[in-house]
Amino acid sequence: MNHSKLAGRRIRVLMWDRLATFGFYSLAVLICLLIFWLLFTILSKGLPEITLEFLVKLPEEIDPGGGIGPMLFNSFYILTLSLLISLPIGIGAGIYMAEYAPSNKVTEFLRICIESLSSVPSIVFGMLGLAIFAEYFGIGLTILGGAVSLAFLNLPMLTRVTEEAVRAVPNDLRNAAFALGTTKYQAIRTVVIPVAMQAIVTGVCLVAGRAFGESAVILLTAGLSTSGEMWDFNLFSPGETLAVHLWYVQSEAIVEDARQIADKSAAVLVFVVLFINLVFRIPLWFNHRKIRK
Amino acid sequence: MNTSADLTDPPKGKAAGLLLSKQHNRRQQRARLASSFYHKYLLFSIIALCFTLGLVIFFIGKTAILTFQEVSFGEFFLSLDWTPEEGKFGAALFIINTLSLTALTLLIAVPISVLLAIFIAEIAPVRLKTAFRPVLDLLVGIPSIVYGYLGLTVLLPLLREWSGQGLGDGLLAAAIVLTVMILPTICRISDDAITAVPKKYREAAYALGSTRLQVIFRVIVPAAGRGIVSAVILGMTRAIGETMAVVMVIGNTPQLAKSLFASASVLTSNIVMQISNVEFESTWNYALHMMAFLLLLISVMLILLIRVLAKKGGAPS
Q1: What is the pLDDT of residue B109?
Q2: Between B119, B138, B280, which is nearest A24 by CB?
Q3: I need a surface site. Which of A10, A21, A149, B286 has the fewest CB within 10 A?
């Protein structure tokens, strides 16, 4: 009696387990299909028609056939500048939170600050940039303003990914390093960071990719126009990026081939982001494999 | 230089010990100096971070507070009438729209993404796992403006056909776009949290005769709770603050969203549509800043709330 009841329960539990496994698999397949469908839609519409000329040519206001040269350049320029500002600070803060922060009220407060900051919508950073650079310093919409505001946006994200990565390093490794008589700094530099490197680089790539495609901040701080020439390194010229250009073409442009330009710009955007992610991570995968073996 | 001299001609006896210990001391001192310098640098970074938050609050808040010179507190937060041209600044409708959009998005996104994270971390065989993670990262990388563009050119026609009414834009379209956007965020971080659960928990649960389903929902998910909660926070953050994707599919009419297909406007979309067209020294601009400040407050409050909940739930810290 009791025995058969137990058996019945076991069968039921096992059946649920099978069912759930099946459910999980179908969900995963669905999501996978969705992802590839999305990428295919974006890339297939734009990529086949992209020519080198399109990538370096100046945009046209009225005639069809304009390019995206200055915007593409600005995108990379602003991304590089913002990472130069935010990487040292973001990674430093992340390491501090993971390794040094004592568990007390102050740390708790710092953590709330970081989480709040990372929850601040990008548009708010855009308004901050607008208030600081356009109103307070009165230099208008510039590449510099865009880069600094973008760095503000990157900071908390970088801190979080670094902290997660460093925290994930097993404590045994640290203790082993300390046992060899290292100082905390030496242990972090020679043991913790190399181990956490893969996760940190992954996180930085994600942040960089997002910054590359960020539009709300740039729209408000770097503006909807370019200086009209290629290779303009001047920090104080207006710096419309590719993502903003997509918005502009889509909403305000009057050129005939706006739709094609939008399609192609979207494809280029996605392609570059994927490229950033791949190029920086392939060496890490190989490294990882070597360690595994 | 010193060391090479020592190597070629090792001093003997007491002197050697003294010299070595002196050297040792110096090295130690240098290491300590580097260590403390490093500590200060890290401390500086974290302070810079907090300074940024202060900057945001100060600059946005300073302008935002000017709103109430001309608009009463009650009108701003309770009135549903937003016609700045006639001096009516009722922001309640944007607030309500933002909240309902976020709720709708989370309703769709959280179950899907957490289940997917569980699948990747626990169920998928290793080879599938290593294939799936990078694929999800691809999705994170797609810029929000591209999501908006896709929503506009692909999703809206679909919704239009399916619902048979209006343009297809509105809360549902925005929520679907947002779901796709925050899915990888939530999923990837939950996945990391679940993977970080110590193996011995699993082994102990299996040793007690649990099925995989039981292990997942009674041991692993509770153990990874903190990470999953922070994943949801990050996803929610993105949903509340997302601007460009939403602005392209929600319709941008300042009215309360009474149905899923009614053209509406949320805090972020309204700000970005209007801010470049207003004078800096105008109540309109102040009101927009007040809305940005509200966004800030909402997200900070949500984060505090979730922290309190996590503490009460006794999630392992």
Answers
A1: 93
A2: B119
A3: A10
Rounded to the nearest angstrom, the gap between the alpha carbon of residue A153 and the centroid of all alpha carbons in its chain is 10
The shortest C-alpha distance from B295 to chain A (Å) reads 7
Domain that holds residue B286: 74-312
Are A40 and A111 members of one domain? no
Q: CA-to-CA distance for B283 and B267, rounded, in angstroms?
A: 17
Of B143, B230, B275, the CB nearest to A220: B275
pLDDT at B17: 64
Q: Identify the sign of the CA torsion B246, B248, B252, B257.
A: negative
Q: Which residues of B touch A29 (CB under 8 A)?
A: none
Name the domain count of chain B: 2
Residue A25: per-residue pLDDT: 92
Q: What is the mean pLDDT of chain B?
A: 82
**By the 8 A CB rule, do A41 and A109 touch?**
no
Q: State whether residue B206 sits within 8 Å of chain A by CB.
A: no
Is B214 found in the same domain as B96? yes
Distance CA A202, CA A206 (A): 6
The complex scores an ipTM of 0.82
Last residue of a domain, one of B13, B45, B68: B68
Q: Does a structural domain hold residue B134?
A: yes
Q: How many Å lie between the alpha carbon of A230 and the closest alpha carbon of chain B?
A: 24
Look at A213 and B192 and tell me if their CB atoms are within 8 Å: no
If asked whether residues A199 and A259 sit together in one domain, one would say yes
- B158 and B216 within one domain: yes
Does the residue B276 lie in any domain? yes
State how far the alpha carbon of A89 is from the alpha carbons of A112, A116, A119, B44, B161, in Å. 18, 17, 18, 8, 49
Residue B96 lies in a domain: yes
Nearest to A112 among B116, B135, B303 (CB): B303
Pairwise CB contact (< 8 Å): A119 & B299: yes
Closest to B290 in 3D by CA, of B69, B111, B122, B41:
B69
Contact A269 B145 (CB under 8 A): yes
Nearest by CB to B296, which of A124, A135, A216? Answer: A124
Q: Are B171 and B179 in contact (CB under 8 A)?
A: no
Give the residue numbers spanning the domain of A20.
2-49
Instruction: Tell whether B104 and B233 lie within a shared domain.
Output: yes
Give the residue with greater pLDDT, A166 vs B251: A166
Same domain, B211 and B106: yes
Q: Using alpha carbons only, what angle is made at residue A72 by residues A67 and A74, rounded to the nearest 5 degrees?
A: 125
- Residue B250 and residue B226 share a domain: yes
Does A30 share its domain with A156? no
* Mutation site, A119, A136, A286, interface B, largest B CB count within 10 A: A119
- Band the pLDDT of B114: cuts 50, 70, 90: very high
B60 lies in a domain?
A: yes
**Chosen from A12, A14, A127 to mutate, greatest number of chain B CBs within 10 A:** A127
Q: How many domains does chain A have?
A: 2
Mean pLDDT of chain A: 84
Query: Does pLDDT of A259 surpass 80?
Result: yes
- Residue in A closest to B300 by C-alpha: A116
Residue B295 touches partner A, C-beta closer than 8 Å: yes
Could you tell me which residues are beta bridge partners of residue B83?
B88
Which pLDDT does position A278 carry in this prediction? 79
* Per-residue pLDDT tens over the stretch B192-241: 889 888 989 989 999 998 888 888 889 998 888 878 887 887 788 788 88
| Residue A226 phi, psi (nearest 5) | -115, 175
Segment A93-120, tens digit of pLDDT: 999 888 888 888 888 888 888 888 887 8
pLDDT at residue B6 tops 60: no
